Each structure stands twice: as C-alpha cells, then as structure tokens.
From TrEMBL:
Residues 14-421 form the Amine oxidase domain. It comes from Sporichthya brevicatena. It holds the Pfam family Amino_oxidase. InterPro entries: Amino_oxidase, FAD/NAD-bd_sf. This is Amine oxidase domain-containing protein. Transmembrane segments: none annotated.
C-alpha cells in the first residue's frame, strides 16, 4: 500500500500506542521508524548478552498503559516487584508500602505533618501554588532538611527527568494528588522493548504496518491529505499524520512556511529538553538487596538504582545480575559538563556499593540530552497535540497532558489524539 488513513512518524511510545488503537479501530495505519528497532528513546539495546534499557526502565501497572494493551490485544508481560521501591534514608532502606508519604516524611523531619498538609491542600484548585513557584521553593516554606529536599529532588528526577529547582510545584503536586502517581510498576523480561514489540505485533495483527529503518525526509500537507517523501525517494499518502518526533522536528519536516508566527514561537518556547546520566552495570554477586528500585534521600546526583534480574533473569546471561544507576545533571535543562556529572554519579555509586570497581562490570555509560532527551519538554510547559494544520497532530512527551510524565503520559495523550482522529476520519 501507498495510501493510508493515518501515517504515524516514529515508533516510540506515543506512536505505537496511537497506531495500535487506530489499527484496532479498523483504520489503515502505517508506522515508519528511522531506527532498526521499536521503542525510540525508551527502547532496549543488547550489550554482550545483557538487555540494557535505553531510557524508560519501568512500566506502570494498572493505569492507561495496561488499559491500552488490554484494549488492543497486546501482551502485557510486566512483573511487579514487592516492595516496588525502597528509600535510603541515612543507612536504612525504608519501605513505605501502605504508609506512603506520611510514613516516609515522619521518619525524616519534624516538618512532615506540615508538608503533608501542603500536599493535601493541593487536592483542590485553590490549594495549588502559582505556576512560577518551583518545587524547591515550595518545599522551602516548610523545611530546610536536606534529606527531605533530596527525596523530592530525586523523585522529580525519576518521574520528570528534571530537578526540583526546575519543575513547577504545581506540576508535582497535581501529579501526586490527581494522577496515578506510579503506585504500581514493574519490569519486562525482554527489557522495555518487550512492551513496544507487543504493541507492534498488535498493530500488524489488526492490519497495520510497521516499517523500520525508514526515515521521513519531508511532509507536504494539504487540507485533507498529506504526502510523505521517504529517505529512499518513494512517497506515501495519508488522510491524517501523527508525528511522534517532537513538535520542533515536525515543523522542520513540514517547513516553517506552513505555520503561523504564533505557533512557531510556541514551539520554540516549549522546546525544553531535559537530560539524564545513566550507568548500566552487572555483577556475578547480588549487589542490591531489593527486588525493584532504590531511591535516595541524600546524594550528589544519584536519583535511583534499579535491580532487574531478581524478577527478570532473562535480561542477563545465566549467573549474572543486571542493574542501573541514574542521575539528573545540574542543570537538567541547559548546558552542563558531561564528564563532571558522570564523575559525581560514580562517586554516589561507589559510596552505596562498596568496592564497586572490583565487584561490578560497567556495561555502558549513557548521557541522554539535546536532540535525544529523556523528555522533550519539561512537564507543565508542553504544547497541545493539535497543530494549526487540521490533519496534523503531535504525539509523545513534548505534548503531554498537564502534570504527567514518561511513557504513561505518552499513552494518555495517544488515547486523546486517537479519539479526535477517529472523529475526523468519520466526518
């Protein structure tokens, strides 16, 4: 085929969630992806027999992601750790399962009750702070306790890929009082790419197509159709285009002349990619005594570590354990020194894993930033998915719904966009 109802550019999370819903609804869909694998910035790479995640390491359970998979018939093989996360406060690893914020904060600060009161007040619109107030500034009203600030800072890093001094407090509080807030999550035994492969399989099972190693060179948009020129010079047409390559890249594909000045300015303003620094490592002895994730109250940069192979031994060769340690640089938005930030992360790792250099094998060091970031826009500064062109929408983490993040946000936006696209195709 060369003519489709919908062309989806990019087989990242947002593109696959949307394409699976559209194919399930009976629409002809083509997904084109320039890489040779699905998942985009949240995929998995094999390194010497280890399945190393490129970006997202956990998948939410019980939310919109699982709901989408159930609806479209995609396998949802996610294994939940119990407890899902421990927080290292001093020399103790605290399990807050069942106790939540109250239990954690009460162990760290006398101001815990006041902070909880502020979080509780945010359940109403009147209790939310102004957008300009950062989370760090909001927290300073209640406490100067560095461990409390560290927990909030590292939770921002884990969920939104920014520091607490770069995220609006309104976003953080909205997420934790009104969104699912990642109460349940787990790992895929194939690495995160396993989920994306399952969605790609569902697309093809419903008659859609997924073409890898296929780049879109340009887009020509008409009021009721679009023509995409591919890297090999061939063309495909579609009634609607969904772009999962970020609003700025979408503008480049179409050409600035197709958009008004206000939209171009909005795209430029919202193009605020964040950054993360990651070390993937392995060992033949068990280095971390938890089945899931470990967050930190005090660290130079380290936000969390995760242990994959207690639940998913398939991610490593027999007899090996697989781990990740992730940090957000300072600043997370803007320029920073790669080497200095990586060195600070290693200092934290060595502090928490004695004799790390002799006990562990480093598989890869990854710095995601600029054109290949963990998030294309800081939460709270996203564009809407619509563009001034009626048959062109954006998907993914540059057009998230307010106060959401990660692959969960991509699934949420995909559902909303697909509902609007189906209405347009039916008219």
């Amino acid at each position: 085929m060369t003519d489709y109802d919908v062309l989806v550019i990019g087989a990242g999370a947002g593109g696959l969630f949307a394409a699976a819903r559209l194919a399930h609804a009976g629409r002809s869909v083509l997904v084109v992806e320039r890489l040779d694998k699905v998942g985009g910035r949240a995929s998995t790479t094999e390194v010497d027999g280890f399945r190393v995640n490129d970006g997202a390491i956990v998948i939410e359970v019980g939310g919109i992601t699982e709901e989408t998979c159930r609806e479209v018939g995609a396998r949802f093989d996610i294994r939940e750790p119990s407890p899902p996360i421990l927080y290292r406060v001093g020399k103790k690893d605290v399990d807050v399962t069942g106790g939540g914020w109250g239990l954690l904060l009460s162990k760290m600060s006398r101001s815990g009750a006041k902070i909880l009161g502020g979080i509780g007040a945010a359940r109403s619109d009147d209790g939310l702070p102004e957008h300009e107030l950062t989370l760090e500034q909001w927290l300073n009203k209640y406490t100067k306790n560095e461990s409390v600030h560290g927990i909030f800072r590292n939770m921002c890093a884990s969920i939104f890929a920014v520091g607490s001094d770069e995220l609006p407090a309104r976003v953080f509080l909205t997420y934790f009082t009104r969104k699912s807030a990642f109460k349940r999550f787990g790992f895929h035994p194939e690495g995160t790419i396993g989920l994306w492969r399952a969605l790609a399989d569902a697309i093809t099972q419903h008659g859609g197509e997924v073409q890898l190693s296929t780049e879109v060179a340009s887009l020509q948009m008409a009021p009721d159709s679009a023509t995409a020129t591919l890297g090999d010079g061939s063309t495909v047409t579609a009634r609607v285009v969904l772009s999962n390559v970020g609003p700025a890249n979408t503008v480049r594909l179409v050409g600035e002349d197709a958009f008004d000045a206000d939209y171009l300015m909005a795209v430029k303003r919202a193009d605020r990619p964040s950054a993360m620094v990651t070390v993937n490592f392995a060992s033949q002895e068990r280095l971390l005594k938890m089945p899931g994730m470990l967050g930190f109250a005090r660290s130079r940069r380290l936000a969390y570590m995760a242990n994959f192979t207690d639940l998913c031994p398939e991610m490593a060769p027999p007899g090996w354990n697989l781990y990740v340690a992730t940090a957000v640089p300072r600043p997370a938005v803007g320029d920073f020194d790669n080497d200095a930030e990586l060195a600070l992360l290693y200092e934290d790792i060595r502090e928490h894993i004695p004799d790390f250099d002799t006990r562990a094998r480093v598989l890869s060091e990854v710095i995601t930033r600029d054109a290949w970031p963990p998030q294309r826009a800081v939460a709270g500064f996203d564009l809407t998915p619509e563009t001034p062109l009626p048959n062109l929408w954006n998907l993914g983490d540059g057009v998230k719904e307010y106060a959401n993040g990660g692959t969960t946000a991509c699934a949420e936006t995909a559902k909303i966009v697909v509902e609007r696209v189906l209405e347009r195709l039916a008219s």
